[in-house]
Specification:
The protein is an alpha+beta fold and 327 residues long. It folds into two domains: 140 residues, 3-Layer(aba) Sandwich (Trna Endonuclease, Chain: A, domain 1), CATH 3.40.1350.10; 128 residues, no CATH class. It is built from eleven helices and ten strands. It has a five-stranded mixed sheet. The chain is globular.
Length: 327
Amino acid sequence: MDLPKAGTTYTQERLGIAAVQLYAARRNQIWRETGTGDVGIDGNIEFVNAEGFATGRIVAVQVKSGPSYFKNPTLQGWKFYPERKHRNYWESFSLPVLLVLHDPDTNKSYWADARQALRSTREESAFIEVLSSNYLEETDAIAIFENAGILDQPFISEISEILRFLIATKSNEGTFPLSYFDLFVHGLTNICRSIYYGMDMVINSVEYNLETANSPHGMGMGHQEHQFAFGFVKFLVAQGLAHIDLSDCLIDWVDRDMHPHFVAPLSSRGRALVRLIHQEEKRLVADGQMQDEGSLHVAQEAFFEMVPASYFRRFPRIRRFQDALGS
């Protein structure tokens, strides 16, 4: 009898999807499969925290299942060669894209953040490397959500507690006097609707604190101090105080061994924190613990700009370049 043949492709695809679905269920995460319009994303996983709350933090998932995806080994895993259209699609996708390679013969799955890999490379590579160490079944959920802004930190719900935490969190190094509160209020800009972060602000804050303390030492900054400063960025993300693209920050921090440099809008919680600082300042002034300095406030916008000396000399060359290509 002449009947349609199902073949093995469908079975392999479903085994891969089922493996991801099972992983999510075992980790108490929410898996949603793409029912229609699958053009490079098979579904998504939403992060559920330890208290059982859905957080709205989501990663997209693309599953590739079958022995053929394991035929290009590297020393640390396998090469996956995406089509050009998928490279462009994943790189510009609004969510991290978890690429999962599933081996139906061993029933094991391995993952990589395809969007992060495509964005972080300095030179375009034809393949994405999926590491064998990224064994999905043994991966903690927090790890796959890191680029979506999920960090292994407790969430502080009360804004007043966040203020106390910012003030109490200080560097223990004598040549690096700095608190998270310093970084928050010094970084406020755009009429206190945004926050700036960069090493210039970190250095200026530390040098002022050293001078105020009449320290005989200059600023010292080693591994521990770098970790402390970047920890502030992660704290902002973990507490939902600003809308920061952590995945982009991690490209600088992890792949390039440098601090990120950004301006990010404050969230409603971040703006509530600014209002609380204003209220506390008014209370301290009313109690006589601080002077009334008119329009000068603790939480107040600062201005920033690109340094003209870093680009002014290029003006003539930029002009000549445009003239040459435009003629």
